[in-house]
């Protein structure tokens, strides 16, 4: 893929080589994301951070990634207040908003809306999530985390044993991740879910066609044995026909430290696209895992910054110039101190 | 008008000479708005972008205009969350908020609210829309677009034939535009609307008193013949007593390519303050006009950036210094590339 | 207190020496807040301005304070759109968001939520208000205002006569201010409220234990006589069990110019944490006081910028470098001019 000027709409755009490119740039972003250096390479550029569906985490992550490259962020946070609510087409919205900024991140609950928007946009568009369809930066940060976690254990992504757990039907993060994983070699995938929330067949079929082993299970304890990676998910209640139906499945698969100790390899990595539902009726990933060093869920969100910075740098074609304007950070960047 | 430090509350403030001043500065802003150059002249300045009525387009446009001059933007997006909802007066709100920023843009649904706010403000205030009353930057960008579009056809604003179409009663954009147009010479205005949504008499009377010809029509096909400019509007349903009443008038005047071809001069310019209502029951400006090069509606919103940058530069008195800090843009600014 | 890297969660953290430190830095911030100079010391830093409870004033004040030091602001404005609404714990929210920014300001309606959040945060956190509990920057700006106002009259804070008026039960601003005032010597405090809205005993007991005189009154005219400072408050209707109960107390204590003239010393300072309720049924501080030079309410909010800048500079350890990057302001910073 030629990144310069490109829309990022779906993980289908990415070859294995493209992924290597994004990850190599993400690695270079680490000193900036970790506040050891600052860069001003995008000073004067504007991101249109257009979230027509509520979101805090993803919106703030994209915004911070752009700020960390020196750019400015203008944003919107809901559809209710927008012209779309007055009957404006995505075509018009795109034509107008793309006159204001240098690049746009868009989230909207309607599947396909972001692609329709991008078609009419005069500036590159990144899909920040279109309903149950795609959320490519999430899939990239998940894959990048898998690579980073296993790298320190001396393993490549190829040949990994990965268990996906929970609502595999409605979770778009899982769907996109499966597509990216499919590009690698010889994976051993275990899909653990209630049968009603199984991964749609198109994904299992594709994985098998690419030569991966796919095992299906509805038993958490058996399914997680021998895995290198556990990828847990929240029940996506907002995508279910009714809240009651979502409630039926909430809390069916709960991972905690005791289960982990009994059934997992000592270094099995635990991931989750977040937010995890910590209400007692759900608790798919128990808080007693918070001190487990293999819990990678916050390294995932940290990596999200790197991936989003990399996408901005690649699309806006400034990778080679990021370091030109770099300088040391002059303020306190350590952990918070103890009170009194 | 002395622009430096002035509030911009109403188009009544502007003489024809003032308009020339704004437009000349707007012309100078083009390289920055089009990302051929960046300027940092307002680095360190803060815009208080106070939208107490929902808006995406206008709010983001003002915010981007300020960012493009190098300044920062702090903003609010609704009245519900504000102190005004706890009984705070506009006087207090203005005294407080004007202590935080260098300049304020305010929108509020109550007519006259922005003027009341400005009275107490310790910093210059731009009216971003106060109910059905005023929205001066919209009128300026509309007039600027008329000038630009006709300039390329070798015509000045004087002597133009302009048709205003649709809800001329509640559309504040139309009202303010009429006031500005009135400053020019010998216009031929056709007002096309259902009689219940006619332009209020104060505007027609004023135009006639200024020597312009005003013709009133309720027939779209006849009315648009011979016009240089068609200015279409959306039914302003939010200003009607009831939604049902608004529904009665929606879709009465629909312009499309076939009607345009049959009844208009070949180069008639099509304008609309946006958003246009693209729902099938409305569709005042059909999507089949999207490829018509005379459709100027997105040039209007692009021009909005220029006009708002010009107002900021004039009020904050930095016109002469905009170019001092200018430099070339170092990132990708072309159109989005093709996918895969 | 060691400020560098510290959370600011409660006024209980502050000794009298700490207060002197904050106020000395706040004094140094004045040229920047008043736009006589700009500094870029925090260029490249990001504030996470996380308001999970609606607020315009406090949110914009913190954001502007950070911008005035040269930093960027990413923010959220409500809980409804956040992962917290999907069952995410404060622990998770903190771990995630603290990976994005250099410092966080958080407001949330649940008492203790900000401290819980700070416990898990990897970056310093400032409490921007947690329900009826704490709002330390408000207490600091109130105390700073008392000091500034009395300084010009040649009086220190020690030995002052201060009347607190109105809803002393639910007003967190009053509670925190009482704690800070307690650190000074020999105050004469008059607490004027309906008995049902009296200051909770823990505060009166603490003040007396520290050697201050505390007088309790339900008569405005008597209570305010001889005071150096009147600190009025709004009925905090959002903290009452029902709106009806709040209505019973609204408008019981109304200060206006006539009462001021008859019962106060000529230079008695009038304060209010704002917003003041200017509806006729409330009007705790009449608009006829707006031209009284002793009305300090807008100097309070102006001082809020200074205090918040000082906290950021102290926590991020840049006090000594603020002036290094300082330069003159190049745009119009005077009062708004007269219209036409």
UniProtKB/TrEMBL annotation, chains A, B, C:
Pfam families according to UniProt: OTCace, OTCace_N
Catalyzed chemical reaction(s): carbamoyl phosphate + L-aspartate = N-carbamoyl-L-aspartate + phosphate + H(+)
Keywords: Pyrimidine biosynthesis, Transferase
MF GO annotations: amino acid binding; aspartate carbamoyltransferase activity
Record GO biological process: 'de novo' pyrimidine nucleobase biosynthetic process; 'de novo' UMP biosynthetic process; amino acid metabolic process
GO cellular component, one term: cytosol
Metabolic or biological pathway: Pyrimidine metabolism; UMP biosynthesis via de novo pathway; (S)-dihydroorotate from bicarbonate: step 2/3
EC number: 2.1.3.2
Residue ranges occupied by any Aspartate/ornithine carbamoyltransferase Asp/Orn-binding domain in the UniProt entry: 159-314
Residues covered by the Aspartate/ornithine carbamoyltransferase carbamoyl-P binding domain: 7-147
Entry-linked InterPro entries: Asp/Orn_carbamoyltranf_P-bd, Asp/Orn_carbamoylTrfase, Asp/Orn_carbamoylTrfase_sf, Asp_carbamoyltransf, Asp_carbamoyltransf_Asp/Orn-bd
Gene3D superfamilies: Aspartate/ornithine carbamoyltransferase (3.40.50.1370)
NCBIfam families attached to this UniProt entry: asp_carb_tr, PRK00856.1, PRK08192.1
Function: Catalyzes the condensation of carbamoyl phosphate and aspartate to form carbamoyl aspartate and inorganic phosphate, the committed step in the de novo pyrimidine nucleotide biosynthesis pathway.
Family under the similarity heading: Belongs to the aspartate/ornithine carbamoyltransferase superfamily. ATCase family.
Protein's UniProt name: Aspartate carbamoyltransferase
Native organism: OM182 bacterium MED-G24
Source species taxonomy: Bacteria, Pseudomonadati, Pseudomonadota, Gammaproteobacteria, OMG group
